[in-house]
Amino acid sequence: MSLVKDFDIAIVGGGIAGLTLAIALNSRSIPFTIYEQASSFAEIGAGVSFSPNAVQAMKVCHEGIYEAFEKVCTRNVSPSKQKVWFDYVDAYKDVTSNGTLDTAFTVSNSLGQNGVHRAQFLDEAVKLIPKHLARFGKRLQNITEDRNGRLVMRFDDGTVAEADAIIGCDGIKSRVRQAIVGADHPSAKPVYTRKYAYRGLIPMEDACAAVGEERAQNACMYMGHDKHVLTFPVNHGKTLNLVAFRTTSEDWPDSQRLTRPGQREELLHDFEDFGPAAIKLLKLVNPKLDVWAIFDLGHPVPTFYKGRICISGDAAHATSPHHGAGAGFCIEDSAMLAELLADEQVKTQHDLEAVFATYDAERRARAQWLVESSRWVGDCYELRAEGVGNDFTKIGDQIIERNGIIADVNIEEMCAKAKDELRRRLSKPLG
Ligand code: FAD
Q: Which residue of 104, 234, 276, 290 lies most exposed, with the fewest beta carbons within 10 A?
């Protein structure tokens, strides 16, 4: 276990990145405080799925995160689909005479589909953070440095706080990212991917009646021209999580607000050419639902750190959700940052820049690859990606290869390699 550290860390933002980092630091006795702009930790009532790399990273952060995940996790229901990540189907086809939908291809991994209801996962995870280490209603405004090298954070409520290092987990519109790259840098702002998504939750009984048990109870991707719908079970199989994506040539009206209220009628209009089975499913979402603009960091940041300030999670590498891996990569970041900060050679404020430089060197290429690849596979699902078009065999091959890059990794080894690199950097004479 780590020796007592002569430094303290500020975590800005309490989403999946900030929370998993906080839990990981707490379990390694690394002093920290978490500053969240909202009045409490909160997640939206939608699903999120995790691939095997994410599950490994949870265990590296803290076994309790993995236990929280297991408690609320829902897997595919059919015994034959336990390793299936998604079955991909042609959205224009109807159910066959035996009541099932033909599968175009299947993508599997070592754990299969693992879906959680975000708010349920969060409720379990926050139990692992001592209450006195979280400050709410603290919206970061700016960061300066005092004469002793302490970083000073000013919040919108007029208060200030200090720390030796700041880790920005403040999401896609990150203030901390702006402090690192400059407010005018292209990567300071997220980019609209020209896709938006309707998100809904459907009672499983109704979903089974619409598309049959096999499709409703196991993860499924409905592929169509310029649009796709994904579904996976959450809430221990009682609810179906549905996300319906649409590509558009129009701009998103307001980049400050990434969601807008929507209606089922709009959704049905957008997907009107889909086959009867998919339409039946779409008719089951609530009459009022949110529409999400899919933004990402299409302009990659040149660095994840500057001095003793760094960024993690969506603040560093916000991605479109088409690989279902953004949150998993947040947890990978947390695992690596915690392991580096816990290293026994990291003792004082002076060692922290080397930690962040190592984290940047070890994480940035993988995370930025995800952002790019996710856009590309999103187009694959919509039969519009260059070089593959509507060739299901080629699409399947691409998705399998790319999902392998995400899932077939060893997170402990990744962290051990980063620690070797950190020690090399710390052993180099200054200057
Ligand atoms: P956020 O969740 O945005 O949290 C940031 C926190 O910082 C918030 O609590 C916010 O209030 C706080 N904050 C912001 N600014 C400030 C400030 N100035 N001061 C203080 N606090 C601040 N990923 C997956 O792995 N699997 C999936 O299936 C999946 N599905 C997705 C579906 C959709 C439609 C979308 C949009 C994303 C999906 N993702 C998925 C991606 C995943 O949701 C994100 O990568 C992840 O939630 C980001 O977590 P975060 O903690 O980095 O950021």
A: 276
Cα distance between residue 234 and residue 236, in whole Å = 5
- Phi and psi torsions of 169, nearest 5°: -115, 40
Cβ contact 261:242 at 8 Å: no
Q: Is 200 a residue whose pLDDT tops 80? A: yes
What residues are paired with 195 via a beta bridge?
247
Establish whether residue 48 lines the binding site of ligand 1, counting it when its CB lies within 6 angstroms of any ligand atom.
yes
For residue 398, the model assigns a pLDDT of 95
pTM for this prediction: 0.95
| Mean of pLDDT over the chain | 94
Question: Can you tell me the distance from the alpha carbon of 205 to that of 374, in angstroms, rounded to the nearest whole number?
Answer: 32
Q: Is 199 a catalytic residue?
A: yes
Q: Ligand 1 centroid to 241 CA: how many Å?
A: 18
Strand segments, DSSP code E, in 204-287 are: 220-224, 227-234, 239-247, 259-263
Q: Is 298 exposed, middle or buried (0-12, 13-18, 19+ CB in 10 A)?
A: middle
ipTM: 0.98
Cβ of 166 below 6 Å from ligand 1: no
* Alpha-carbon span 369 to 417, nearest angstrom: 19
